[in-house]
Amino acid sequence: MAITAKQVKELRDQTSVGMMDAKKALVATDGDIQKAIDFLREKGIAKAEKKSGNVAANGLAQIAVKDNTAAVVEVNSETDFVATNDTFKNLVDEIAAAIAAEKPADVDAALELKTNNGTVKEAIVETTQVTSEKVTLRRFEVVEKSDGEVFGAYLHNGGQIAALVTLEGADEEVAKNVAMHVAAVNPEFVSRDDIPSERLDHEREVLKKEALNEGKPENIVEKMVDGRLRKFLSEISLADQEFVMDSDQTVNQYVASKGGKLKSFVRFEVGEGIEKKEVNFEDEVNSQING
């Protein structure tokens, strides 16, 4: 029977598979959507090895803590549909726990770690077979603290953003509140002391020229530059940012008021920096159905 673009779109919406996979499944099952879904699931193993060239820009980030060690990881899939799958979620949890426990040096070393399903690499291959999508361990960061420090972990939107904060003093609740801030505001540095001097000098010079070009008098330019530089710092320095839960104080002031001191943060946003292929859906349907 003839397969329509509407049928392909419906199957793709339910399974997030590629256009040709959807078309082939519908042809094989005479257009029966439910049978086509079963067909795609059954073909998962056969397609696993064909996924290596696909772009995996969705997925989940996770944080695991073991004693004084924490691991922030990002595991990618091709679609957000698979990222909500329990098999995929369990894989991400296993990988994060293994990395926190063993502290591997890099991704290659992490792939050799043991899980409940063989090595991390073997578990990824198995999940690729089950989901029929490319699955990859993209990156991780291991953070260690002393006994006098605390971790604060926060996952936004089920793991689309993971933020881990380390404080000296204070407690986990304060650290988690700061982690929520990091997830929301995305600072670049812990404090202005971490910003390279050449970047600050460059920014000051740019702001000065900007003020002079606005025709401001020389005697007030420096004050203007100082004010604008503070705003610049508030955009990139965690310590100088207005705290999202209380804009009357900075993050540094909030932490200090709780007897703590900012030490470090890690923020992973799933897919950041990965170039996603932009496809016009209507054009893709027409080219694949009529091809």
From TrEMBL:
Function: Associates with the EF-Tu.GDP complex and induces the exchange of GDP to GTP. It remains bound to the aminoacyl-tRNA.EF-Tu.GTP complex up to the GTP hydrolysis stage on the ribosome.
Coiled coil: none
Protein name: Elongation factor Ts
The entry's keywords: Cytoplasm, Elongation factor, Protein biosynthesis
Subcellular location: Cytoplasm
Tagged with keyword Ribonucleoprotein: no
Taxonomic placement: Bacteria, Bacillati, Bacillota, Bacilli, Lactobacillales
Domain Translation elongation factor EFTs/EF1B dimerisation: 70-272
Region (Involved in Mg(2+) ion dislocation from EF-Tu): 79-82
GO molecular function annotation: translation elongation factor activity
Top-rank taxon, per record: Bacteria
Annotated family: Belongs to the EF-Ts family.
Cellular component aspect of the GO annotation: cytoplasm
